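User: Batch of two.

Assistant: Item 1 of 2:
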Amino acid sequence: IRPNYAAASNLGTLLYFIGEFQRSADSFRQALTLEKGSYQVWGNLAAALDRTGPAADAKAAHQQARLLVQERISVNPRDAGLHVALAEQLAALGAQADARASLARAIALKPADAHTLLRIATFFEERLHQRTEALSWLEQALARGQTWREIDNEPLLRELRQDPRFVALKSRHTS
């Protein structure tokens, strides 16, 4: 058996969701040795490094993810998911005004994809600390078919899941 890009990336994602951030980063690095062109994997590596360090490596990964997503936006500027991905990278790099502008472009495109809506909810929770907005976007994601498994396992929503409004939302959507 030889190294496999998809397997390494998927393993990195699994390890990230269970809180094994260093091992997650190692798996994402392995995936990137096989294919360097994925903004998602660079962003995933950056997210894992945000939790384990070193900070300079996390910043470099965020910068690479930003460059790659900007390339994709130049090809497909109407993809709301790409604008959310750019907002995530810009916010991580400290460019808050640019991140908000990119998020506004994503929202203006009226995203309908459940995963994109979940990412917007996560952005409002994690980056903007606007829980009411996060819950509103989360409800929209649920209406579009977002699964509870991903919501319940998303590390960036850990605090939001403790909010009584989240508990009430889950109760309404699972009963």
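Item 2 of 2:
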Amino acid sequence: VRDLLHHMVELDQYMRRYSDLVYADTYSEKEREEFSERFQKRFRRVDAFHFDFLLSIFQKYHWISISLFGKKADADAWLLVQHADENLDFQKMILKRLEKLWPIGETNASNYAYLYDRVASAWSDPSQRKLQRYGTQGVCIGPGIWKPLPIEDSEKVDERRKAVGLPSLSEYTK
């Protein structure tokens, strides 16, 4: 399980790293469209395979717990769940599990925080979007400028971030 999760994360990161490569070069609009169309099909197939695998794993194991699989496998499983945006109900299910696991050290506390915000952000259906709690999700609003999506009780966001081991929002934004 650990080895397969690691391999899946490598593939996940490879696909995400190259998804916008075409925009960093001098390709024509037609070339960009062709690349995006072909790449997105592969990208969706990879994410769908990862989702199916995670479903099968979580039928056997409640979570890829630190005590059973180690910190690296916990982080790998979290990243794949984090990127399962087309399956919001699945992300919500895992979020409920992580909510119980991070206080007892069976997952990294920041895993819970990031997934909480990812679920609140509802990337696959913005009509379901809610306020995030930790300010981990946002959008680029200009070259090198990132802005978090709306945050609940934003005056206390840094207290919540600190409680789960995240740096202040101003540090994160940089």
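The beta strands are 138-142, 145-148.
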